[in-house]
Design a protein that fits this description.
heterodimer, A: mainly beta, seven-stranded mixed β-sheet, 11 strands, B: mainly beta, six-stranded mixed β-sheet, 0% helix, globular
C-alpha cells in the first residue's frame, strides 16, 4: 500500500536549521508531487509547498520563501524539507502528503508527522 | 490568495446531524476537500471534489456546495466523529493550497 514515513522528532535552538525526510513506498515515486504541511500547537494546517520528485521543481508558499528548501533523492524514494533560521514560531508538527492521483489537488495519504521543537 | 472561513467549534448530540460550513470566494469555482483530524493523528481525507467520498469513508459523511459555501454533513453523529475538520482548496490563480481554520466538533 501507499505509505509515507517521516523521520523522527527534532529539537533545535533558535537560529538553527532542520531537515526532515519523508520516505515513500508502494507507488511510482517520480509520478507524484510531495507536499509539506505544518501545524503549530493547537493551530490549524498551513501549506508550505511542494516538490516534483521527478524534475526537482518546487513551489513554495510565500510565507516560507527564502527559508525553506525541498529536495528529493529518487534512488531512495525520499524527499526532504529543510527550514532555516528557526524561531519558536516554527515549533510545529510537519507533515508530508501526497495527492491521491497525479492530477489531484487534495491529499491522501499523509505521513505520520514530525514534531520540531525550537527552544533555547 | 484565497481565504476560507469556518466556525471554530460546534457541539452535536449523538445520533443528530452536524453541518460544518466552509465559506470563501473561491468556493464554487475551485473544488473543496475535507479532512478529519483526531487528536495525535495526521489529517485524513473524508470528502474530495466537493461531494465525493473516498473508499472506506462511511456514507454518513457527505459534502455539498451552495453558492460560496461548502458544507460537510455528518449524519447520525457518534462519539468517534469527535475531531477537528478542515476544508481545503487549491487556488488555481496563484497555484497555492489553502486550508480553512478548522472546526472542532464535540459530541455531547
Amino acid at each position: 500500500q501507499v505509505r509515507l514515513v517521516q523521520s523522527g522528532a527534532e529539537v533545535k535552538k533558535p537560529g538553527a536549521s532542520v531537515k526532515i525526510s519523508c520516505k515513500a513506498s508502494g507507488y511510482t515515486f517520480t509520478a507524484y508531487d510531495i507536499h509539506w504541511v505544518r501545524q503549530a500547537p493547537g493551530q490549524g494546517l498551513q501549506w508550505m509547498g511542494r516538490i516534483d520528485p521527478n524534475t526537482g521543481a518546487t513551489k513554495y508558499a510565500q510565507n516560507f520563501q527564502g527559508r525553506v528548501t525541498m529536495t528529493g533523492d529518487t534512488s531512495i524514494k525520499t524527499v526532504y524539507m529543510e527550514l532555516i533560521g528557526l524561531s519558536s514560531d516554527d515549533t510545529a508538527i510537519y507533515y508530508c502528503a501526497r495527492p491521491t492521483a497525479t492530477t489531484s489537488v487534495w491529499f491522501d495519504p499523509w505521513g505520520q508527522g514530525t514534531l520540531v521543537t525550537v527552544s533555547s | 490568495s484565497s481565504v476560507l472561513t469556518q466556525p471554530p467549534s460546534m457541539s452535536v448530540a449523538p445520533g443528530k446531524t452536524a453541518r460544518i460550513p466552509c465559506g470563501g470566494d473561491k468556493v464554487g469555482s475551485d473544488s473543496v476537500h475535507w479532512y478529519q483530524q483526531k487528536p495525535g493523528q495526521a489529517p485524513a481525507l473524508v470528502i474530495y471534489y466537493d461531494t465525493k467520498r473516498p473508499s472506506g469513508i462511511p456514507e454518513r459523511f457527505s459534502g455539498s456546495i451552495s453558492g460560496k459555501t461548502a458544507t460537510l454533513t455528518i449524519s447520525t453523529v457518534a462519539a468517534g466523529d469527535e475531531a477537528d475538520y478542515y476544508c481545503q482548496v487549491w487556488d488555481s490563480n496563484s497555484d497555492v493550497y489553502v486550508f480553512g481554520p478548522g472546526t472542532k466538533v464535540t459530541v455531547l
